[in-house]
From TrEMBL, chains A, B:
<protein>
    <submittedName>
        <fullName>TetR/AcrR family transcriptional regulator</fullName>
    </submittedName>
</protein>
<dbReference type="Pfam" id="PF02909">
    <property type="entry name" value="TetR_C_1"/>
</dbReference>
<keyword id="KW-0804">Transcription</keyword>
<dbReference type="InterPro" id="IPR001647">
    <property type="entry name" value="HTH_TetR"/>
</dbReference>
<dbReference type="InterPro" id="IPR036271">
    <property type="entry name" value="Tet_transcr_reg_TetR-rel_C_sf"/>
</dbReference>
<dbReference type="InterPro" id="IPR050109">
    <property type="entry name" value="HTH-type_TetR-like_transc_reg"/>
</dbReference>
<feature type="DNA-binding region" description="H-T-H motif">
    <location>
        <begin position="39"/>
        <end position="58"/>
    </location>
</feature>
<keyword id="KW-0678">Repressor</keyword>
<dbReference type="Pfam" id="PF00440">
    <property type="entry name" value="TetR_N"/>
</dbReference>
<dbReference type="InterPro" id="IPR004111">
    <property type="entry name" value="Repressor_TetR_C"/>
</dbReference>
<dbReference type="InterPro" id="IPR009057">
    <property type="entry name" value="Homeodomain-like_sf"/>
</dbReference>
<feature type="domain" description="HTH tetR-type">
    <location>
        <begin position="16"/>
        <end position="76"/>
    </location>
</feature>
<dbReference type="GO" id="GO:0046677">
    <property type="term" value="P:response to antibiotic"/>
</dbReference>
<dbReference type="GO" id="GO:0003700">
    <property type="term" value="F:DNA-binding transcription factor activity"/>
</dbReference>
<keyword id="KW-0238">DNA-binding</keyword>
<keyword id="KW-0805">Transcription regulation</keyword>
<dbReference type="InterPro" id="IPR003012">
    <property type="entry name" value="Tet_transcr_reg_TetR"/>
</dbReference>
Length: 225, 225
DNA sequence: GCTAGTTTCTTTACGTGTATAAAAATTCAC
DNA sequence: GTGAATTTTTATACACGTAAAGAAACTAGC
C-alpha cells in the first residue's frame, strides 16, 4: 500500500504566480488600457515576473485570450427571461450571446473559437438546441441548426468589428466608394441601383432581422411552430 | 497655358519594383510554400529588394493579403449556370463564393473584410441581391439579406478554419470533451443527450443546409417565391 | 545530509511587422 | 549646369511572441 493518507506536498519548485493571477492581471490591463496594451512583456512586469514565466501557466497568448473570453462570459452573461414560444426563445438566447460579445470587440481575435464552450455559455446553447428540438427538429438537426446560428452570430461580429477597425485606418472605404461609382448599370443593375445607399445600409444593425430569418428557415416545415 | 500636351515624365526616383510584381511574387510564395512562409523579408529578398521598399507599394501586410484575395477571386471565381428560380439562384451564387473561399483556407486572416469587394465577386453579389428583390423584398431589405448571407458564409469559413488549425495544436478538443463529459443532464438535458455525437456532428459540412434555411427565412412571407 | 528527480523561473536569442531617418535617383525651374 | 523638389530605396532600430537552455527551489529516497 503506497501513499494511503499523507497528501504529500507537490513536487518541484513552488510556483510564485498562478494562472488565475495571470488571467486576472491580463483582464485588468485590457479593462484599463485596451487589448492593444496587453503584451506578454507588459503582463510579466505588471505581475512582477518575466515573460517566459507566463508560459508555464498559459500555453500561449491565444490561449490567454480564450481564457479572458471565458472569464468575460462568466462575469457578464446573465440568463434572460425566456419566452415560452420556442422560436422566440431561440432568438432571445442567441441575441443575449450576441449582445454580450458585441459589447467587447477586442474579443474578435479569439471569437473564431470553434464553439462558445465557456461553461457559462452552455446554458444558452442548451436553450437554442432545445428550442429547435421543440420546433420539431431531430436532435442532430438541432445541433446543426445551432451551429448555423453560431456561424451567423460570430460572422456578424467579426465582420463588423473588422470593418470598424479598418474604418479608422480609412481609405479602404474610399476604395469601396470607387468600386460603386464605377459600376456598370447594365451589367450590375441592382448594385448600381443601391450604390448610393450601400454604405448607410451596411452600417445598419440588422443582426436581429437576419437571426429571425435564419431561425424561421430552420424551423420551417416542421410539425410544431 | 501650362502643360497642354507634353505628358511630362513622372517625378522623383523611378521605381524598381511595382505593386503587381509584389503581389505576383507573394502569390507564388503562397502557392509554393504556404502562407506561413510569406514574410515581408522573404518577399523582399525574393524580389531582389529590401523589406521596407515593399511598403511603398502596399500599405502593410494586411493590405497585401487583401490584394492576394482579390487576385485569387479574379483567377478562380467562375460564373456558374444559375437556375431560374430566384431562391435557388441565391443559393447557387452564395455556394459558389463559399466553395471558392473554403478551398483556400489561408485566406481566413483577411476574410473578415467588410464585404467581398473584389470586382470579380460583384457579379455574385448582384445575383444574390437581385434574387432577393425578385422574391419580393424591397431593395434595402435585399441588401440586408445579402449581408446576412455574407455573415453566415464568412462565419462558417472562419470558424471551421480556426477549428481545423486548433485541431493540429490539439488539446482544445480534449478540453471540450471534458466539458461535455462533465455535463449535468438535469441542468442541460439536450446537450447531455447529444454529448457523445457533438464532435462528429459539428464536423459535418452543413453549410448548404444552413444557407437554404437562411434564404428561405429571408424570402418567407413575401409575395413571390 | 546528500543526491536524484521534478517543477518553475530566468536568460538569451531569433524572426517577425514596421516606424523613422537618411540616402539615392530622378525632373523641373532657372 | 545647378539647386530645389519629389519619389523610391536603404539602413537602422524597436517591440512583439516565443523557442531553447539552463539555473533555482523544492521533495523523496537513501
Amino acid at each position: 500500500m503506497p501513499q494511503p493518507s499523507t497528501p504529500r506536498k507537490t513536487l518541484g519548485r513552488p510556483p510564485r504566480i498562478s494562472r488565475e493571477e495571470v488571467v486576472e492581471t491580463a483582464r485588468r490591463i485590457v479593462a484599463e488600457e485596451g487589448v492593444d496594451r496587453l503584451t506578454m512583456r507588459r503582463l510579466a512586469t505588471e505581475i512582477g515576473s518575466t515573460p517566459m514565466a507566463l508560459y508555464h501557466h498559459v500555453r500561449n497568448k491565444e490561449e490567454l485570450l480564450v481564457l479572458l473570453l471565458d472569464d468575460y462570459a462568466a462575469r457578464t452573461l446573465r440568463r434572460p427571461e425566456l419566452p415560452a414560444h420556442p422560436r422566440e426563445r431561440i432568438v432571445v438566447a442567441a441575441a443575449a450571446i450576441h449582445e454580450a460579445l458585441a459589447a467587447c470587440p477586442w474579443i474578435v481575435e479569439v471569437l473564431t473559437a470553434d464553439d462558445l464552450m465557456s461553461t457559462s455559455a452552455l446554458w444558452f446553447v442548451e436553450q437554442i438546441v432545445d428550442g429547435l428540438v421543440e420546433c420539431g427538429l431531430p436532435p442532430e438537426r438541432a445541433v446543426h441548426g445551432y451551429r448555423a446560428i453560431w456561424y451567423y452570430t460570430a460572422g456578424e461580429i467579426v465582420v463588423r468589428a473588422t470593418a470598424a477597425r479598418r474604418r479608422t485606418d480609412d481609405d479602404r472605404a474610399t476604395y469601396r466608394e470607387q468600386v460603386f461609382a464605377d459600376l456598370d448599370p447594365d451589367e450590375l443593375p441592382r448594385l448600381a441601383q443601391v450604390a448610393d445607399s450601400w454604405a448607410p445600409l451596411t452600417a445598419e444593425d440588422t443582426y436581429l432581422d437576419g437571426l429571425r430569418a435564419l431561425v424561421d428557415g430552420l424551423a420551417r416545415g416542421r410539425l410544431r411552430c
